[in-house]
Structure formats: C-alpha cells, structure tokens
Amino acid sequence: MTRSTHAWTDDAATIGVAGIDGPLRVLHVTDSHISVPHEEVDRPYARYGERMDRLFADYPTVDSFAAQMEHARAGGYDLIALTGDHVNYPSPTAVAAVQRLLRSAGRHSMFTAGNHDWSYSGMPGSDAERRREWRERSLLPLYGGRAPHADSLDLGGVRFVAIDNSTRQVDPEQLAFFEGRLAGGLPVVLLAHVPFRLPDDRDLHRAPPPSSAAPIPLCGDPESGSPADIDRRLPGRERARTSGNLPSTEEFVDRLLAAPNLIAVLCGHVHVAGAYPIHDGAVQYVAGPGYLNRSRTITIRPR
Ligand SMILES: [Fe+2]
Asked: How close is the Cα of 186 to the center of ligand 1, in Å?
C-alpha cells in the first residue's frame, strides 16, 4: 500500500497519491452558519432560531458563502465539499439561499449535514428524531439527489465518501456502507461534520465556537455518547439518556484509524482550522469556518 504525502496550511493542503488520474482540486467549505430574513414558511419556528440568529448577527455569512461559491466557479474546482452547519437551523428560506449560491458555482458538490442544519435550538425531540424529520422536510435540496445518511462519489480515481455523524454517532448501516466503500482500495476522502477522536488530537476539541467555552466532544470520544444530545447545554433542554457511544461509532473510529487507503477526513464543527495526522498516510483536516470567510483548497495530485 502506497502512503500518500501531505503538506498543509490553514487555507490549503496538497496530497500526493500514487496511481490517480490527474490533479483534483477540492474546495472545502464548512460552518457557514447562514440565517436569512424569515419568510412566511419560517414564521412558526422563528422563536427556535433567535439564539443562533443572535450569535451570528455580526458576520456577513451570506456574502462570505457567495464569495466562496464564486471562487469555486472562477477557479474551476472539481468538487465543493460542504461539511455541515451551512444554515443555522433548517429554515427552508435559508436552505434555498444556500442552494441557489451552490448552484451558481456550477461544480460537483457533496454536502453532509451538521447538527445546526437540522436543529432548531430548544425544539423537543432527540437528535436522531430531529435529524430524520428536518433532513427530509428542509435539507434535501442541498444533497443534489445524493443520499443524506451515507453516500459516495468517485472522481478522478479518488473516492469521496460522506457519512452524516452530526449526532456524533455512526450507526451500523453507515459503518457497513463505509466498509463497502473502503473495499476495492481506491484512495478514500471522508466527509463528515464532527471531527473524529484521534489518539493524538492535542487541542482539537478544546477549540470553542462563539457559542461556548466548553470543550467540544468529538465523534468517538467516550463523553460523546452520554448524553447523546448535542443541545444538552441549553437551559431547559431535557437531559437525554446516558448510554455511551453506539458500538458502531467505536468500530467506525477504529476502522478509520487503521484504513490503509484512507487519505483524508474533511470536517468542521469546531470552527478553528487545523490538520491532525490520523496515520502516516492520512490527515484529518478541519477547515476554518465559512462565517469568517475561511475555506481550504485541497489539491490531490499524482505522485
Ligand atoms: Fe458550526
């Protein structure tokens, strides 16, 4: 198995991979946190959006996303990788705005949801229930016909796999899908919202978003599964069960750490750019947040 080589900054990464067709350029955009003025269809849920509207009121989130999509179009990128939290809550109006801008780029895209994409703060229901409901009700336009829970796309000899881990859990169906996509040996780039727990992740989950100074549990962290409710710090939020991670989440992370043909994980959630080696051929890349007009250009080229 040939290992890939990596070089990176906060805004760019170059990955050298043996046996691929030619250079591929990916624009990784995450955590745009877009709110737009409410339309009639949003009004019944407006009060659940107030907290997030307030948190991001000072950022030109729509303009930043528009600039990134224009950059993707003009730069002739092969793929736009969107790793979640592009809207602050599943307002159909905000989703339509994101979809319109994404389309204007005219590039291939892959979207996987973040917790905020399906979550109206303080709305009752478990994370899994709210994700199931709002992905169907609001978010489908962002997937461009791809499967929201787990999907893959082969491009230029590289396999891009999207796994929705926005509840911080990976279910058995997603684990089986990922195993199947790893088989065959193509170099794999995984897109997911929440970074995965790594043996040496240093400050990765210490990076606070503007909403919290608390450490952020990662996917596979022992504390992530208990309680399995991403809004648990909100006042009035019911405390969820304390059952620990799903066995499939633990297995997924173990599989990821050992997968020889994994070359990169692209993720967001923590709002601070970073790059964290997974093994000697793979790096977990966290892009800086879209709401600060950050993104990362990833060039995958033959070596
Ligand atoms: Fe976020």
From this structure: 30
Q: Taking the model in full, what pTM does it have?
A: 0.92
Give the 3-state secondary structure percentages of the chain, helix then strand then coil, rounded to 5: 30, 20, 45
Q: How many domains, in total, are found in the chain? A: 1
Which residues constitute the domain of residue 117? 5-302
User: Cα(241) to centroid of ligand 1, in Å?
Assistant: 24
Name the token pair of 211.
């909403």
Rounded distance from Cα 56 to ligand 1 centre (Å): 11
pLDDT digit string (tens) for 156-206?
999 999 999 999 999 999 999 999 999 989 999 999 999 999 887 666 766
Ligand 1 centroid to Cα of residue 303, in Å, is 34
Specify the CATH number for the domain of residue 64.
3.60.21.10
Per residue in 76-119, pLDDT tens? 999 999 999 999 999 999 999 999 999 999 999 999 999 999 99
Sign of the C-alpha dihedral, residues 235, 236, 239, 245? negative
How much distance in Å is there from the Cα of 263 to the middle of ligand 1?
Answer: 24
